[in-house]
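Inverse folding, one chain.
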């Protein structure tokens, strides 16, 4: 088959013998998005959440999971209809994968030619460059993924990557054409590309050369000047050195003659972005051309005297008679970082915000905030260098030392320094800080000064330094958000994305070393957590040790081995010290609220794992540290977020950055003795056990509640108003619950361990999460057995019986239920015994021993009624109804189901309603009423869609298929069986898979129907 991404999305059979492709577009936008997401990772599993994002973006509807299965089935049909094999699209553990060979996707073929062209371009093999670029560009039919809704990040990134690769291929093609002297006819095509890509300097350089070689020197110079104006206006930078070289050669060449060199970059890689290039000398310009702006990183260039001819019209204060006379122009910016990498979007935001004309209002003010080591200062310095030409009266810089040794600097002292830098006699400075601030605002008024205030402690330290008006601008960096500075543009800086991490590491230690060991490099990146400081330290260690492999450093930084903070130190740089500055600033703060937040940080280090919410945090901290409960805990968490010692991945949840979590764990280990650490962790795991019990009561009211715990939770547990709320909480908190279970087992708390494992019954039954639930139960079982906890053993045997029964492992189910019955009878626990009798009834129904199932069920019903347990009575009635069906008493069965369904509808329990409706559908199939069965089963699917339950739906779909077949609708039956098969493969449900395959085989090879015989 052939798949096309380089234009509208297309799929079809292999080309005909004459080379014509039969690939054609897909009709449905959703199918196009689904296929594109699969082709973005050919042959690799794509998680279901990634596919849902491709189809619906960040807001999938409640029916997204079911709809995804439908779209997968439709795409399979399309593949089959277009000459392919539908089995190419397979269910995988985590989603779906599409089996595709590399030469079947035009984008993969393009990449191969692109790579060959790059290699040829590096060595100047121009005929090979032409051959490979021609083959690559011939594959393009338009914009990549032109008709695909780009709702997911992965699709947007793929389209952008392909578009960029095409432009780079075009650049190489024109380099080859010019190097071989084939410049005739290139100018028109290059002019169109330059116009469409006004900031892409290579096309402009190539156009200049092509024009000059065709005796159009004036037009070539015009192209240069237009490009330069654009770059200066838009980015505040000069053209790339290669463009400037071409410009100088055109100026130096005889009028109308060719440039001396056909291509200044014949034997080099394509030019790097201007910000990464060495700073060239400014290009001499004719008098009619504005004087060039010094490039980023170059020393400041002093202007000519005010009375000189070059001063006229340069936009400096000397042109404005109402401005104050010229004074010293300080240029205090730290040196730019030559290997500054990434941050293009953040840099663009900074430049746009600080270029804005105030128009009589307050000067532009930008606050760059982020955790220590995230690269705030590097970004601010890079932006400040690019903006220097806009602030001819100088650039003032100060490290406010808000975090670090030596104490924060006082605003009044800084004002005195800034005034002296601007030429104001220090003897005129008043002593009062407020008076100094007034004098400072007066002195800076009317000037164009860029003020860079690095490492600010808080808003109070910055506010007196702000100009009151005029044309200056202020750029502040801080580890806090500085919410007290009104009108500021706030730019929170997070870790670098993975491609930029890799690029930075390569620039520090060498591209070849990173390319030679991609797996080890990925390990280094993971250990550094996207922090530029950590990446620079890691790269510096490699650069200083040329005999080390990247793998050797990756082993030292292995997340699982710990000790990364010790390894991430080189010279005077250490990641640990950076985090310590933030923590110590809060711990030693004069603010009681900040000191309380620092104390909370030390306790939170006991749990550097999954995110916590305010209520869980209040339980961890305890009533002594957090007497105000969840509300106070949220204030403490938010204070840590403001200081960038915590992150908030979504509203209401808080987690550590990976490396900060390791530092917090070290703080907890040093600062909290075991007699304080153990009670804090116990409070947290007890809270999770209580919250899980509340979720189970909402999701599975028919499940028997656990005996009351001896300890009350230290913070309020959630109150769930609906099944959906309970399910959403379970999904969100599952990683934390599993971590709490591991903590409880490691600490030797069997009473908490078994309650956590048992409490997962609600989540497990809704999502048919049997495998991992059984693992959790076995982990807790080992703990209660080791500590001789008889009550815990009884409940673990009971819940393991349920888990193994759900996965149809009936031998293990019976073994555990019999053991549970023995424990409960021995302890006199009638509720536990009733639960076990109910489950034994369900087990024997599942094994076909219906009379034994009925016997256990009737005993269970009697015991539950004697206990006044109405919810469990409804459950047992449903089980008895199933028994009656298989014992040939459909009327008795339907009566049981009707009573049970009425009870669940009155309670509003969606999970139980769905389960009972399924049984009612089975009953109606058995009594020869398939149309009524379809009605019940379709309502079941609607309920399951509300719950987001895909696994249980596979069973229901298989039953619904039989109902459709019984009423003669073979097409509907085929659709249901196919979707049931897809879901069974995804959720690893072999019994449902087998039943669905049998149904599909029966449709393909029908056998004479066997009609059920019903008793008179």
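Residues assigned per position:
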């Amino acid at each position: 088959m052939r798949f096309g991404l380089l234009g509208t999305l297309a799929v079809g059979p292999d080309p005909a013998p004459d080379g014509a492709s039969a690939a054609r577009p897909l009709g449905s936008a959703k199918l196009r998005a689904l296929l594109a997401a699969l082709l973005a990772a050919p042959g690799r599993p794509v998680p279901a959440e990634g596919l849902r994002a491709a189809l619906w973006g960040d807001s999938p509807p409640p029916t997204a999971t079911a709809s995804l299965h439908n779209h997968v089935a439709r795409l399979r049909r399309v593949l089959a209809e277009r000459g392919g094999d539908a089995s190419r699209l397979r269910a995988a553990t985590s989603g779906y994968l599409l089996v595709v060979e590399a030469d079947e996707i035009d984008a993969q073929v393009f990449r191969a030619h692109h790579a060959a062209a790059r290699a040829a371009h590096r060595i100047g093999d121009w005929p090979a460059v032409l051959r490979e670029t021609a083959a690559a560009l011939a594959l393009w039919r338009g914009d990549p993924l032109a008709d695909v809704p780009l709702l997911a990040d992965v699709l947007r990134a793929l389209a952008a990557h392909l578009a960029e690769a095409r432009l780079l291929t075009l650049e190489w093609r024109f380099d080859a054409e010019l190097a071989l002297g084939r410049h005739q006819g290139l100018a028109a095509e290059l002019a169109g590309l330059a116009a469409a890509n006004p900031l892409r300097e290579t096309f402009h350089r190539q156009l200049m050369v092509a024009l000059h070689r065709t005796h159009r020197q004036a037009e070539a110079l015009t192209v240069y000047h237009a490009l330069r104006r654009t770059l200066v206006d838009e980015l505040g930078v000069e053209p790339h050195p290669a463009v400037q070289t071409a410009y100088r050669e055109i100026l130096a060449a005889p009028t109308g003659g060719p440039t001396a060199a056909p291509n200044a970059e014949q034997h080099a890689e394509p030019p790097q972005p201007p910000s990464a290039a060495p700073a060239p000398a400014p290009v001499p310009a004719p008098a009619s051309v504005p004087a060039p702006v010094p490039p980023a990183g170059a020393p400041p260039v002093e202007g000519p005297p005010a009375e000189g001819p070059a001063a006229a019209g340069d936009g400096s204060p000397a042109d404005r008679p109402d401005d104050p006379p010229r004074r010293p122009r300080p240029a205090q910016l730290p040196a730019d970082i030559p290997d500054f990498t990434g941050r293009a979007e953040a840099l663009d935001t900074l430049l746009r915000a600080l270029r804005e004309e105030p128009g009589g209002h307050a000067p532009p003010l930008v606050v760059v905030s982020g955790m220590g080591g995230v690269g705030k200062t590097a970004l601010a310095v890079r932006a400040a260098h690019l903006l220097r030409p806009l602030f001819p009266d100088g650039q003032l810089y100060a490290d406010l030392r808000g975090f670090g040794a030596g104490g924060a600097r006082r605003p009044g002292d800084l004002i005195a320094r800034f005034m002296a830098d601007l030429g104001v006699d220090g003897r005129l400075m008043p002593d009062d800080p407020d008076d100094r601030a007034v004098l400072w605002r007066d002195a800076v008024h009317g000037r164009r000064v860029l003020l860079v205030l690095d490492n600010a402690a808080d808003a109070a330290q910055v506010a007196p330094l702000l100009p009151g008006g005029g044309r200056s601008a202020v750029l502040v960096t801080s580890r806090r958000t500085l919410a007290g500075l009104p009108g500021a543009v706030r730019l929170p800086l997070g870790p670098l994305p993975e491609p930029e991490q890799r690029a930075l590491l390569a620039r520090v230690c060498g591209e070849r070393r990173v390319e030679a060991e991609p797996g080890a490099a990925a390990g280094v990146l993971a250990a550094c957590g996207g922090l530029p400081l950590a990446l620079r330290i890691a790269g510096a260690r490699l650069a200083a040790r040329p005999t080390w492999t990247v793998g050797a450093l990756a082993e030292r930084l292995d997340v699982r081995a710990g000790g990364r903070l010790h390894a991430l130190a080189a010279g005077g740089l250490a990641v640990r010290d950076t985090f310590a500055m933030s923590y110590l600033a809060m711990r030693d703060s004069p603010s009681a609220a900040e000191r309380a937040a620092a104390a909370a940080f030390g306790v939170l280090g006991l749990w550097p794992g999954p995110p916590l919410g305010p209520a869980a945090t209040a339980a961890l901290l305890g009533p002594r540290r957090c007497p105000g409960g969840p509300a106070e805990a949220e204030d403490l968490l938010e204070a840590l977020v403001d200081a960038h010692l915590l992150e908030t991945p979504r509203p209401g949840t808080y987690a550590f950055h990976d490396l900060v979590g390791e530092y917090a764990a070290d703080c907890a280990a040093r600062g909290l003795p075991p007699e304080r650490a153990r009670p804090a962790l116990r409070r947290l795991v007890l809270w999770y056990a209580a919250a899980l019990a509340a979720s189970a009561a909402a999701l599975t009211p028919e499940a028997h509640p656990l005996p009351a715990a001896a300890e009350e939770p230290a913070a309020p547990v959630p109150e769930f108003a609906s099944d959906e709320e309970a399910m959403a909480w379970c999904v969100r908190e599952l990683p934390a619950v599993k971590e709490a279970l591991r903590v409880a087992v490691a600490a030797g708390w069997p009473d908490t361990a078994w309650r956590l494992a048992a409490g997962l019954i609600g989540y497990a039954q809704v999502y048919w999460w049997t495998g991992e639930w059984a693992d959790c139960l076995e982990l807790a079982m080992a703990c209660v057995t080791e500590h001789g906890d008889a009550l815990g053993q009884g409940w673990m045997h009971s819940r393991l019986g349920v888990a193994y029964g759900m996965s149809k492992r009936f031998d293990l189910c019976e073994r555990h239920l019999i053991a549970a019955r023995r424990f409960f009878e021995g302890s006199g626990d009638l509720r536990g015994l009733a639960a076990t009798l109910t489950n034994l009834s369900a087990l024997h129904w599942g094994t076909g021993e219906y009379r034994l199932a009925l016997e256990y069920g009737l005993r269970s019903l009697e015991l539950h009624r004697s206990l006044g347990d109405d919810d469990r009575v409804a459950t047992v009635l449903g089980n008895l109804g199933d028994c009656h069906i298989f014992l040939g008493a459909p009327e008795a069965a339907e009566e049981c189901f009707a009573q049970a369904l009425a009870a669940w509808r009155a309670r509003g329990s969606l999970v139980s309603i769905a389960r009972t409706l399924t049984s009612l559908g089975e009953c109606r199939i058995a009594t020869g009423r398939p149309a009524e069965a379809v009605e019940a089963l379709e309502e079941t699917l609607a309920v399951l869609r509300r719950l987001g339950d895909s696994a249980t739906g596979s069973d229901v779909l298989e039953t619904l298929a039989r109902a459709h077949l019984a009423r003669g609708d073979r097409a509907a039956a085929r659709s249901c069986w196919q979707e049931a098969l897809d879901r069974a493969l995804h959720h690893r449900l072999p019994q449902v898979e087998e039943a669905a395959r049998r149904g599909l085989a029966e449709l393909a090879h029908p056998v004479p129907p066997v009609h059920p015989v019903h008793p008179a």
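The first helix runs from residue 29 to 39. The CA atoms of residues 930 and 966 lie 6 Å apart.
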